Design the sequence.
């Protein structure tokens, strides 16, 4: 099969549901067989004080959430100490855009973690945060990215991508990092030999064509840099925020979107069903629709659970592994760069 163009990709939404699933599954099998990857990780969200005002966000204390917090470095280090004992291999650190902490608060924590726990992979700072820090502290993207590396950041998460179509983006998160800026930051990161992920927030006001456009833009940069490890479609959670959506997206539409992204993103090796936003059950089914990664055990999560996801306390490792096995796949623990660590 050749490369799928925009029109063909859009038409796939009207294809037979199971044929579409089979096509995506064939690509998944070719790339990964029956393996489903996960890692033992911990999400840390150190502050929810935010200068930006994204309509979909229930986490930020500048929206409906009245409970502001900002963690001290000691509090963050204590969490890392605990998760290290439990065998976590990665911390995923993402914050709101807090103008009160100073640049050092954002960056020095990475150095402190790296010094104490050199074996833990630090995945941190979305392109939206990089954009915020550059603007707030009058630095170039190059300077911020170099400071991240100097301080011990290993890879960048895929957050802040939302929907790249400018009209939808302007409606749901006006003023935040633009699509062009988001790509510029990831391009620069990849040029430094570093890897990152890319997300897509869907199931709100966007249309199918916006999702396809989103995937095409990712495919274009990936052709140039090869720096994306993984694509992560995030299912919109609709509670406690200002983005009103009449009908929640259906499971059928979610699975079609997974399958189409597996087919369109022929140059991105991994497709993650982030169980936090899809539910665990649908993430397990998504394995049949192209997904080969289920993120990880997470342990604690604040951004999506604020908007209604049932993920606040993560999932136990034994249960997670058991669910993957029972659904007919092989659970493979990976590190953050997709090296295989253990077949469970
Ligand atoms: O960028 C915010 C999203 C993202 C809502 O790189 C929402 O491995 C759904 O990017 N409903 C942060 N989503 C999370 C993220 C992520 C998650 C897991 C793995 C990786 C990775 C990255 O959460 C934000 C935004 O798109 N988000 N509010 C909401 N109401």
Sequence:
């Amino acid at each position: 099969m050749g490369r799928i163009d925009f029109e063909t990709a859009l038409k796939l939404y009207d294809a037979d549901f199971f044929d579409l699933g089979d096509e995506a599954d064939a690509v998944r099998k070719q790339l990964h067989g029956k393996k489903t990857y996960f890692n033992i990780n911990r999400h840390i969200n150190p502050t929810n004080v935010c200068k930006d005002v994204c309509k979909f966000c229930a986490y930020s204390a500048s929206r409906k959430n009245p409970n502001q917090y900002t963690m001290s470095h000691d509090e963050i280090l204590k969490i890392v100490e605990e998760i290290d004992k439990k065998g976590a291999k990665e911390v995923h650190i993402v914050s709101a855009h807090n103008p009160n902490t100073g640049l050092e608060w954002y960056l020095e924590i990475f150095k402190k973690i790296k010094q104490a726990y050199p074996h833990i992979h630090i995945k941190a700072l979305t392109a939206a945060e990089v954009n915020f820090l550059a603007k707030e502290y009058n630095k170039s993207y190059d300077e911020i990215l170099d400071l991240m590396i100097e301080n011990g950041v290993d890879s960048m998460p895929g957050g802040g991508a939302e929907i790249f179509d400018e009209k939808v983006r302007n409606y749901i998160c006006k003023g935040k990092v633009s699509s062009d800026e988001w790509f510029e930051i990831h391009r620069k990161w990849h040029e430094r030999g570093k890897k990152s992920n890319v997300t897509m927030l869907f199931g709100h006001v966007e249309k199918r064509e916006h999702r396809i456009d989103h995937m095409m833009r990712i495919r274009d940069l990936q052709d140039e840099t090869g720096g994306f490890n993984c694509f992560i479609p995030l299912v919109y959670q609709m509670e406690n925020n200002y983005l009103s959506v009449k009908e929640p997206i259906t499971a059928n539409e979610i699975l079609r979107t997974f399958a189409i992204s597996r087919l369109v993103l022929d140059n991105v090796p991994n497709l993650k069903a982030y169980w936090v936003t899809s539910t665990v059950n649908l993430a397990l089914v998504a394995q049949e629709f192209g997904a080969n990664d289920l993120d990880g055990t997470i342990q604690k999560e604040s951004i999506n659970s604020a908007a209604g996801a049932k993920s606040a306390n993560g999932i136990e490792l034994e249960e997670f592994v058991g669910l993957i096995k029972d659904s007919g796949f092989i659970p493979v623990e990976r590190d953050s760069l997709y090296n295989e660590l253990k077949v469970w």
Observations:
- The chain has one domain: 6-336.
- Residues 56-58, 94, 157-160, 162, 197, 199, 201, 232, 234, 236-237, 241, 274, 277, 295, 303-304, 307 surround V47 (CB under 6 Å).
- The radius of gyration is 19 Å.
